[in-house]
Structures are given as structure tokens and as C-alpha cells.
Design brief:
Elements lengths: L1 H7 L5 H20 L15 H5 L5 H5 L23 E3 L2 H6 L1 E5 L5 H10 L7 E5 L5 E3 L5 H9 L18 E5 L5 E5 L9 E7 L1
Parallel strand pairs: 1-7
Antiparallel strand pairs: 2-5, 3-4, 3-5, 6-7
Helix pairs in contact: 6-7
InterPro entries: DNA-dir_RpoC_beta_prime, RNA_pol_asu, RNA_pol_N
Protein name: DNA-directed RNA polymerase
Keywords: DNA-directed RNA polymerase, Nucleotidyltransferase, Transcription, Transferase
């Protein structure tokens, strides 16, 4: 009850007890953000938010930045005097893995059809086609007839989708090619210039 709680608090007057309780609560709140601020001896303190995300073993560097994700790769970097200062050289083997989801329209359908026919092993080509319902269709490198059939149906609606607004919603995941813009990060990422936009040069 209230009287027993008051008796367990340090202090003689109620004002001292309230002040000590306030300080104890403030330390507890501080330790949620940074557990190193909790200097209570012998107290078992859980990791604070700062301890969870900082250092190499933290949430970002261990579980997010160090893992491979879509539309990203990792490599060494070296200078090249034969490209423009705003360009970054991308090896062709990387360009075949890095894809850009380009929406199919009547204006680019012929170009995208040719990329599909090239397939995943010829650059510039394409690796996947996304249908109206979100289904991803993988383009087979050794099956030209499959790629030809997919290319012919780029502007054709699937039977189950009669809505005309879904007519131009297919996407072709084409290879990265010269002229595309990419974000390049050099670790340690300490400030804004650590991540810059450059034009790809395959």
C-alpha cells in the first residue's frame, strides 16, 4: 500500500523521499537510452538503446549493414583516370546481378523485349519479369523459347486481371547499364559525403 511504499524510500521528510524517488526514476529512464549512465553498484542493468546499436556488434553494423540486400553489392574501390569524375566503374559481372525494375510501357516495350531475349547471361539483359499480381517470373538462361514467350506477353493483360488500370504494371528487372545512377557508400559512414550518387559506367 501507499504507507509501506513511503516507508521504504530513503529520506526523513516527505520532500526528501520524493526527491530521491524522482532521482531513482530519472536514472532508470536514462538507463533505457544509455545503460552506462546507471552507476548504481551491484545493480543488474539491461542494455540500453545506445548499447544495442553502437559498435561493430551493434544492430546496424552486425545485422543490417553487413548483410546482403536487394539492389546492393560490395567490392573494393580503386581510382580510374579513364572515367569522368562523376562516374563509377561497375564490372560487367556485377552489372548482371544488380537489376533495376523498369515499368513496361508502349514507349519502352521493344527495348525491354530485346533485353528479355538477351537473358540473364548477356549484358545488357534481364533477370526477372514481375507480373500484375506481383508474381516474379525468372528468365532461364538456356531457354530462349521461354524468354520469347515472356517477351511477347509484356503488353498483354493476364486473364484474371480485367481491370484496364493494371494493363501497364508489369516490370522487367533489367541489368544495370551505363548511364544509370547508383548510390556509392565508403565505410566508415560518418557524414553525408560518405554516400554519394554516381553515374554507372559498365
Amino acid at each position: 500500500n501507499r504507507s509501506s511504499l513511503t516507508n521504504t524510500l530513503r529520506g526523513i521528510t516527505n520532500e526528501e523521499k520524493l526527491n530521491n524517488l524522482w532521482l531513482k526514476m530519472q536514472i532508470t529512464v536514462n538507463s533505457i537510452f544509455d545503460s552506462s549512465l546507471d552507476n548504481r553498484s551491484g545493480a543488474r542493468v539491461a542494455k540500453g538503446i545506445r548499447q544495442v546499436i553502437e559498435k561493430k556488434e551493434g544492430l546496424f553494423r552486425m545485422y543490417m549493414m553487413g548483410k546482403r540486400v536487394n539492389y546492393a553489392d560490395r567490392s573494393v574501390i580503386s581510382p580510374d583516370p579513364f572515367i569522368a569524375i562523376y562516374e563509377v566503374g561497375i564490372p560487367e559481372i556485377f552489372a548482371k546481378k544488380l537489376t533495376y525494375p523498369e515499368l513496361v510501357t508502349p514507349h519502352n516495350v521493344y527495348e525491354l523485349r530485346q533485353l528479355i531475349l538477351n537473358g540473364p547471361e548477356v549484358h545488357p539483359g534481364a533477370n526477372f519479369v514481375e507480373l500484375e499480381d506481383g508474381t516474379i517470373r525468372r528468365l532461364l538462361p538456356n531457354n530462349l523459347s521461354q524468354r520469347t514467350a515472356v517477351a511477347k506477353l509484356l503488353l498483354t493483360r493476364e486473364k484474371q486481371h480485367s481491370d484496364t488500370s493494371l494493363m501497364f504494371t508489369k516490370k522487367v528487372y533489367r541489368h544495370l547499364r551505363t548511364g544509370d545512377y547508383v548510390l556509392v557508400n565508403r565505410q566508415p559512414t560518418l557524414h553525408r559525403p560518405s554516400i554519394q550518387a554516381h553515374m554507372a559506367r559498365v
